[in-house]
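Dear all,

This email documents one entry for the complex benchmark we are building for the journal club exercise. For each entry we list the sequence lines for every component of the assembly. Then comes the predicted three-dimensional structure of the complex as a token string, followed by one or two observations. Please use this as the template for your own entries, and keep the labels exactly as they appear.
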Amino acid sequence: MRSGSSVPAAPGHGGSRAGRYSLRTIALAYLALILVLPVAMVFYRTFENGLQPVLQALTDPMTLHALYLTVLIAAITVPLNTVFGVFCALLLVRRAFPGKSFLSVLIDVPFAVSPVVVGLSLVLVYGRTGWLGGFLAENGIRVIFAWPSMVLATIFVSLPFVVREVVPVLQEIGVEQDQAAHTLGATPWQTFRRVTLPAIRAGVTYGVILTTARALGEFGAVSIVSGKIAGQTSTLTVHVEERFQQFDLVGAYTSSLVLAVIALVIVLGMTLLRPKEAGQ
Amino acid sequence: MTISAIGITKRFGDFVALDDVSLEVAGGELTALLGPSGSGKSTLLRVIAGLERADAGEVIISGEDATGRPARDRGVGFVFQHYAAFKHMTVRENVGFGLSIRHRPKTEIAHRVEELLHLVQLEGLAERYPSQLSGGQRQRMALARALAVEPKVLLLDEPFGALDARVRKELRAWLRRLHEEMHVTTVFVTHDQEEAMEVADRIVIMNAGRIEQIGPPRELYERPGNEFVMSFLGPVNKLGDVLVRPHDVELLLEPNGASTEALIDRITYLGFEVRVELELPNGRKLWAQTTRESAAPLEPGETVHVRPRAARTFDSDGAETHAAGDSPEMLPGSDSPWWDRRVTMEVHHG
């Protein structure tokens, strides 16, 4: 530690100076190559030809509609999956019922199944010739190639995040705080609102961040069920692909940047909103 | 504010935690449920609180049938072994929780919380979070929280079990004083016989889902109803059917006609108390509890003469058949004169 002295390094700080630096170098180089460099390149390429083309791409009605649709889908998906996720986590941790392990496995299916498969399976069920789709179409409800199917696809792929973040927290806090609240006269809802929810808040927050990121960034399932109708069923990710294939690179990069910025703002916002941990 | 539990049975799968248990607790009394782990004492407390639903039986709290009521409507205060503090709330918010969910006026809550913090000696810590308190402080906070809603009965589940020995002793004495001030009907669960004897007006001894005996601490110690109660309340030497407390084993330097010879195996000094391990001619081992002064003339390897001052036998049903100093294993007792160079025994328990 002290340069040039003969004092041996304290245990736990193991290894030579060269060893430590080479480890850091490897870790940073790895991140730089696969994470920082590509993202930085998007930034660079977006603004390569100045601000004018960027503003033009941003104010393009197609881009604006894609942005609107992306935000709409996230705004429906995130609250639904948050409520469902917390409910399921409570069920999985605190109740004993037959089929519990089956439910647990079922919740993980979206992690295991490729989004493309999710998209196709939704088409099979809700498509015009599908099992439910025919009935819905007769009643004038269009699901596939319209925003409802895109919401369904997004809900499907981002389903497990809140559950998987909240379950371990619930297991850790146990049931005694809730029981204490009961004996003090709290109704189940009061107990949930004032005791359980604050205790699992950190887990829920992280689950919401992951769900939001996934909802904004989903491409595979959404692109299949949307039909990719520009200006109608095109989300930002679909829009990026479409611009890219039209050789409108600035348009593609600008939309990518918008996606990245929204995600960043959400992550930062949630981190700032997170209540200070008790006792810190 | 009385509690009656009538014919309570509770099973967890195949395990019978409570087997037709009935218990009456008089108003204002401090009762200890004492027993080994798995004896059903905590389950009984939780059934009374409504945190566990009995398979059979009734719970009546101050004259009202509470059997079907949820915990929140029973008017009980419950204190958990591991405090169950609301970690995201300050001490003030924890203590005020019960009043706050009842939508009491803010000034009333503030006033009551101050009062209770004073009672549990936590003034000045109101703005702290539970993680910034010691174990003893957390448990006192939990007690204040339970008392805030003016419960009809106070139930404590191994309240000092998670604390270190020194704090535990302090809190015991403190709980006893608190009870004398407040006179809330209190039931607490413990597996520590010393704690039960020190704090409770009345002890309920439980074993394997049943109540073995109920009585004031002294009565239980002096007149145990069966072998389990006698062995659970303090150390015993078992010589065949005969049970002798180590402090009732008298050590004599000379035979007095009523004594038996014994070889000293080992002498252990524990401060004031000294343990003398002995072997009888028939090979049976026993130990005597005596004082430092009394043990001074004794050396391991030497022979002493032992005599039970009191002994008990119970028949196979556990009922007492004999209680005297004349066990068949040892020679009958006699009134040794005080000049009989005997090693005096202090009745001392620890």
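Observations: Residues 325-350 of chain B have pLDDT under 50 and may be disordered. Residues 30 and 200 of chain B are 5 Å apart (CA to CA).
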